[in-house]
Structure formats: C-alpha cells, structure tokens
Amino acid sequence: MENDIILKCESVVKLYRQGENSIYALRDVNLEVKRGQFVMICGKSGSGKSTLLNMLSGFDTPTSGRVFIDGVDINDAPEKERCRIRNEKIGFVFQNYNLLPILTAFENIIAPMQIGKRQWSEAYFRQICDRLGITDRLNHLPAELSGGECQRVAVARSLIGQPSVLFADEPTGNLDRKSSDELIELLKMTNREFGQTIVMVTHDESLLSIADTVYRMTDGTAKNITGNL
Fold first, then answer.
1. In sequence order, which residues have a C-beta less than 8 Å from that of residue 22 and are 6 or more positions away?
2. Please, which residues have CB within 8 angstroms of residue 154's CB and are 6 or more apart in sequence?
3. 17-48 residues labelled b (16+ CB within 10 A) or e (exposed)
4. What is the pLDDT, as a whole number, of residue 82?
5. Which strands, in side-by-side order, build the sheet including 38-42?
6. With 0-12 CB in 10 A as exposed, 13-18 as middle and 19+ as buried, what is 80?
7. Cα Rg, the chain, nearest whole Å
8. Are the beta carbons of 196 and 186 closer than 8 angstroms?
9. What is d(CA 221, CA 52) in angstroms, rounded to the nearest whole number?
10. pLDDT tens digits, residue range 137-154?
C-alpha cells in the first residue's frame, strides 16, 4: 500500500558540470522503501551509491527528480521544513563514527536532541543502550572506547530520535571482521526489535542476503536485484 512507503525517489538525476563537460552521478533513479524494511544499496566505488544516499537523506539535492520521506517532497519543502525533516525523521550512521572527542558517550548520544531542542525518552535511551551493550561505557570519552564501542555509540545516537529512516554509509568499512559482524547484528536487531527502517550502502556482497530489498548501482543507475541474489 502507498501509505506503507516511507521513502521514495522518482527519476532522480545528479549532474555535475566541469567546464563544458557534464558528468552524471545519478541517471533517472527510482526507488521505494517500505516502513520497517532493511534495504541495501550496493555497487563498486564510483557507481553512485553514496551520492544516492546523500539525495535520499536530504544531505544534497538532485539536479532533477523528487525525493519523498513520509510523503513529503524534501526538495520542494521550504528550508525550515527541510531542516526539521533532517533533524526529526533521519538518523545517520557514518563510517568514521563522527563522535565529538570532548563529549562522553552519553553526551554524544543525546547531542542531536539537544541541538534540535527536542524531548527524548529516558526509557527508550536506556533500552537502546542496554541492547547495544554500552550502558557501562556512557561516562567514557571516545578515546577511551574501542572502535566497536564507538560504532555502538554512533548507532545509539542515530536511534535516539526514533527516526523514520536510518541511513548507514559503508558503516563496516573501517572495522575488522569481528566488529563488522557485530555491527551488522546490531543493525539487524534494531530493524527486528524496534521496527527501524534502514537504508544501508555497502560494497560487501556477503552482506546482501540479510536485506529485504537490494538495489545495485551501476554507472549512476539503480536496479532492484532482490530476486536474483
């Protein structure tokens, strides 16, 4: 049903101009994500997958085409509304964690809520920290945490606002295999237990089987390959 679709892009094009040359990063991309799905976007370096993620998350705007989150065209909305959507409806897990070194794990997790002057649920905070296994690390600075613990804090930060969509850009790229496997299990858990919609970019073909839907990027185009894995 249409109201089950939480994220959609229609005929999205991203064009960069270098002098007289035109470079297409995205070519007529169409994509749909249903509420509660775990969607992966895969492809080789330079295929356009991170560019697409930036369009879907509102970090960048397409040259043409439309992107909808919860039925709102995020590129047609006024800037104030776009900021509200990014703050309230989008969570993001970065490859390099992007934790502030002078803040404790607790302060890093709630920072987006404080910046956006939003209320947050202490019960939900405790729940996600318990499930992520970081409750006893909340008073530590990032430098005092392992890479896996930093990634768990980053995941908690992305979840605290209960976003409509959680985006993850190559989140396992800088992790060893053990930490990578743990992170994927954490994302699967948030999808399963919290009903969190997740859109993840990866180049790791071994991860694709856990997704509900998979899109493969090739030269700026996206193809649904879910039934062909």
1. 15, 16
2. 93, 94, 97, 98, 99, 108
3. eeeeeeeebbbebebbbbbebbbbbbbeeebb
4. 83
5. 90-93, 165-169, 198-202, 38-42, 213-218, 221-224
6. exposed
7. 18
8. no
9. 10
10. 999 999 999 888 888 899
Q: Which residues of the chain have pLDDT under 70?
A: 1-3, 229
What is the amino acid identity at position 212? D
Summarize pLDDT for 55-67 with one digit per residue, the tens.
Answer: 999 889 999 999 9
Q: Could you give the CA distance from residue 199 to residue 175 in angstroms, rounded to a whole number?
A: 19
3-class secondary structure, 99: coil
Domains and CATH numbers, the chain: 2-228 (3.40.50.300)
Rounded distance between C-alpha atoms, residue 163 and residue 145, angstroms = 25
Long-range contacts of 130-135 (CB under 8 A, 24+ apart): 131/189, 131/190, 131/193, 132/156, 132/186, 134/105
Q: Which residue has the tokens 């404790």?
A: 104
Query: What token pair was written down for 177?
Result: 């295999």
Pairwise CA distance, residues 188 & 195, whole Å? 10
Tell me the HSE value of 166 on the side-chain side, using a 13 A CA sphere: 27
* 193 close to 131: Cβ distance less than 8 angstroms: yes
| Bridge pairing between strands 90-93 and 165-169 | parallel
- For 57, phi then psi, to 5°, come to -90, -5
